[in-house]
Amino acid sequence: MMATTGRARWIAYLLGAGLLVLLVAFGAQKWMKREPPLPVVTELQDMDGLSCADGLEKARELSRIAPDQGRLAYFWLFSQCAESPITAEAMIEAGALLAYHLQKPAEAEQVYARFLDQFPTEPAAADVLLQLAKLQLDKGDYASAVTRLTQLVQDFPDSPHQESARFLADRAAELLAADRQSVRTPLGQLRQMVPNNVGSALMLLMGFIPVVYTATNAAQRLRETQRAGVKLLIALVIVCIFTNFFINNFKKAQQIARLDTEISALK
Fold first, then answer.
1. Does some domain include residue 39?
2. Eight-class DSSP state of 92
3. Which are the contacts of 154, defined by CB distance < 8 A and separation ≥ 6?
4. What distance in Å separates the CA atoms of residue 76 and residue 69, rounded to the nearest whole number?
5. Most buried of 30, 35, 89, 211, CB within 10 angstroms?
6. How far is CA 235 from CA 18, 243, 245, in A?
7. What's the rounded Cα separation, in Å, for the pair 179 and 106?
8. Is the pLDDT of residue 128 over 90?
């Protein structure tokens, strides 16, 4: 009986460790996807005393000779000239500087997204949507990229970027097909054990309840009198882990099917 008790406790510990690893991986994914806020620059020596229009010219000059200083100059414009007519132009230029010269795509995405929030009907918004979709495709965020491409096609039907949007939609379809194939591999299925949504994470957290109960001294009395109870508790943990797995697969399949439909509508 003591051997059975010891085995049950060690199984509970191992399952608990597995749950913890999966939850840590989920948290790490969330942390890595977070986007730090854009810098707020309220004082910059190069921009002291300049008007908004002169500040834009200075930012352009700095971008050519010292791109890092040019980046700060544009952020100074965003904070000091938020209501100025030059803001839209400054955002477009800053996005290009960040994305293609300074290799800061996360900051470029935020600048472009801010432009679309503030100037959704500007003719230049079509180009911004296209650039934003490119950045999102490059980082593997197919859902956001397809949303931006759909917005471009629907909101700007006369834009010269229509053909480019459809080209990017074809690229998104190819990347999505590759992603679908990778999910079907053994390694891909193993990755599906890591939660990809809050519901899966909650299911794993529920698995800790029988783990803790099985491993505590309070469960010792139950094990001494009722082995079936121990097996049931361990089985509940396993059920929680595999329910998490099936939820992940279901959510992934739903996302791929929805993106397939949206991409088909773009072609």
1. no
2. H
3. none
4. 10
5. 211
6. 14, 12, 15
7. 22
8. yes
Count CA within 13 A, CB hemisphere, residue 58. 19
Query: Which tokens sit at 55?
Result: 């500040």
Q: Among the three residues 143, 158, 182, which one is the final residue of a domain in this structure? A: 182
What CA–CA distance (Å, rounded) separates 29 from 102? 25
Name residues whose C-beta falls within 8 Å of residue 222's C-beta, 6 or more positions apart in sequence.
Answer: 229, 230
Q: What is the CATH number of the domain that holds 159?
A: 1.25.40.10
Number of Cβ within a 10 Å radius of residue 91: 23
19: left (phi > 0), else alpha (psi -120 to 50), else beta? alpha
DSSP string covering 194-219 = S--SHHHHHHHHHHHHHHHHHHSTHH
pTM of the shown model: 0.81
CA dihedral over 50, 55, 60, 65, signed as positive or negative? positive
Kindly tell me if the per-residue pLDDT of 180 is higher than 60: yes
Torsion of CA 123, 125, 129, 131, to 10 degrees: 90
pLDDT tens column, 142-155: 889 999 999 999 99
Residue that has been written with the tokens 């942390």 in this structure: 31
Instruction: State the Cα–Cα distance between residues 129 and 159, nearest whole angstrom.
Output: 11
Structure tokens at 105: 């795509």
Residue 259 near residue 176, CB atoms below 8 Å: yes
Both 178 and 191 in one domain: the answer is no
Calculate the CA 174 to chain-centre distance: 20
Same domain flag for 171 and 229: no
HSE of 37 in the Cβ direction (CA atoms, 13 Å)? Answer: 3
Q: Flag whether 109 is in a domain.
A: yes
- Using the 3D structure, point to which of 182, 201, 226 is the last residue of a domain: 182
CA angle 77, 78, 80 (to 5 degrees): 60
